[in-house]
Amino acid sequence: MAHNDGSQSARTAAPATRIPSAGAQAPATDAPSTDTRALALLARLFPTQASAAAELMNLSAILNLPKGTEFFCSDIHGEYEAFSHTIRNGSGSIRLKIEDVFGDQLSEQEKRALATLIYYPREKACIALAETDDQLAWYETAVTRLVAVAKRAAQKYTRSHVRRALPPDFAYTVEELMTEDGLGVDKRAYQQALVRSAVECGQGVALVEALGLLIQRLAIDQLHILGDIYDRGPAPHTIMDAMASYPNIDIQWGNHDIVWMGASLGQRGCIAHVVRNCARYGNLFILEDAYGINILPLARFAMGAYRDDPCVAFGLKGSPDISDAEAEMCVKIQKAMAIIQFKVEGQLIDQYPDFAMEDRKLLHRINPETGTVVVDGTEYPLVDPLFPTVDWNDPYRLTPEEEAIMQRLEQAFTHCEKLQRHMRFLLDHGSLYKVNNGNLLFHACVPLNEDGSCKTVNVFGEAVSGRALYDCLERHVRNAFFAEDAAERRRGRDLLWYLWLGEGSPLFAKSKMATFELYLVADKEARKEVKNPFYRLLEDEAAIDGIFRDFGLDPRCARIICGHVPVKAKDGEDPVKCGGKVLMIDGGFSKAYQGTTGIAGYTLISNSYGFILAAHEPLVSREAAVAQERDIHSSRRVVERVDERTLVADTDLGAQLKAQVADLKQLLEAYRSGLLKEQA
To the nearest whole number, what is the mean pLDDT of the chain? Predict the structure, then answer.
C-alpha cells in the first residue's frame, strides 16, 4: 500500500489485503497464518506506528476532499485539432475558473487572452511578446494571472496530487509561486525574482507553458474515451501520441479502434478495411507518413489493374485537400481494396460459420452478364458493373497480384513499431467496458432482443449474453495478442474482425455492415442497416434496468454512458435518454457527421456538483484559436445536480481508500498489541 494522494489513477489499484484485528482467534498452528503474513507484508511499507498513523491520517483526510473531475468523450475519429482544443479548455471549464478568479477585474478581451494563453501557452506567449515593448512587465502580469487560475484549479486536490501534475523542469519554481499568498512584501519580491530569473535565463516562455499545462491537467482529473479514435479524420496517430502523455486515462474500444488492432496483427479483413477507408477519405498519408507503411506497390497495382476503369462508385468522402492525381490514385486504391476486402471477408465467413454472416457474401450473387446482384432475395442493378480482378468461377480467390499485395501489407502492419506501440497503449489502457462510480461505460450497446432481454451470441461455441458476452469477447481480444497457443491467437485475431462488423458485436450493434451495398447498389432499401433493439429500447426503463442488474449495478442510481450512434441534435434529438439513465455523447467530432448532428461533438463532465453535458460548435482552426483568440463555443447543460457535494469517500476510489484505512488501523493494533514489532 503505497502513499496515496487521492488521484483518480488510484482507482485501478487493488485494495490492500484485508487483515483481521489482533483480537481475532488465531488458527492453532505453529506456522504463520495467511493473514499474519499479509500483515507482515504491509508492515514493510509502514514499519513504525508513526508511519502507519501518518498514512492513515492522510487517507482519512483525502476521503473528505471533493471528487476529481471526470471528462467523457467519444467518437473522435481522427479530429485531433478539435479534440485537443476541447481537452485544453476543459470543455469550457477553464474559462469558468477565470471568471471565478477575476470576475470584473479583467475585461472580456483580457479574459480571452488569458484563456488562450492557458490553452496554447507557448504559441500565445510568443505572439504577445512580439507585440510588447516591456517583456518583463508582460511576464510578471501573465505569470501572476496564471498562478491565480492554477491555485483555483488546485483547490480540491492535495499538495501531493498537484505536485505530481507539475512539469518536472519547473516543479520547484511553480510550487513556490503557488504557495505565495501575496500578502508579504518580502514574499512578493521573492516571487518577482523567480519570474525575473526565469526570463533572464531564457526560460520565460517555458515557465508560462508549465503553468498553462498545469492548469489543463488540473481541470481534468480522469479522461474517459468511449471509443472510435481511428478512421475518417486525418490525425488519429497524433491523438494517440497526445493520449500517451495524459496521466489518467481509460479507453473503451470502439469498432473503429478494434479494426486497427486487428490490422496491427495482420488480420486481412481488418487490413483491407483500414487501407480502403484511408483511401476513401483521402488519408493515405496516415499509413505512409504516420506509420511508414509503403503503399507504392498497392498504388502501382491499382493504377494498372483499374487503369481503364472509371471507378464510378468509389468517389472520395468529404473534401480532402489533395491534388487531382492523388485523388485519382485514392479512388483506384479504394476500389482495389474494396474488392480485396469482399474476397477475404468471403473466405473468413466460410472459415467461421458460427459468425452467421453468409448473407454478407455477395460477389457470387453478382450476374456479370446483366450487371445485377441479388441482396436478401431481391435483384438490384449495380452502380459499377466492372470487376476486372474477379474470376466468376471462383469469385473469392485473390489473384496472384492481390495475394502479393496482401502479403506485403501484412508484413508492413505487423512490423510497424509505431503502430504496435499505439495498439499496445490501447490494450494497456483500454477494455470493452468499464464500471466506474456507478457508471457503465461502453462504446455502442449491450445487444438486446426485441423483448429487452440480453441477446445470446455464439462465441466459438460458447453461448453468452450481457456482461458475460463482454467478458468473453475481451478474453479473446487479449488472447489475440498474448495467448501462447497459436490457434487461440488466430481465433482471437479473427474475432477482432467480427467485432468490427458482426451482428452480435456489442461494438457494431447493427444487422449488417452494408459496405458492398453502399458502394454498388443505389436502392436505399438494400443499404439499410437495422440497429440492435437496444436503440429502440433506450426509453424503456425496464430494459435499461435489466442491463444494470446484469452488470451488478443499482438501477436506482446507475447510468449508461456510450457513443457510436450520432445524436441528431439539429433535429431536436436529446442525448439524454430514459430520464437520465442513458447518456449518448456522440455529437459529431468527425466532420463527416456534423451535417447529421448539427454540432461538432459532445463532451460530458462529472464533477463534485453533478453532470454537465457540453455541446460544441466547430473549431475554425488551431491558428485562429491562437492568433484570433477564437475559442470553441460550447453550450453547457446541467444533466444532474447533487444535493450534497460528492466527496472522494462517495466514489470507487473512496471504497478502496476506506479498505486501506481499515487495514492500517489493524496494523496499528498489531503494533500496539505486540503481534508485530516496529522496525527502526
Answer: 91
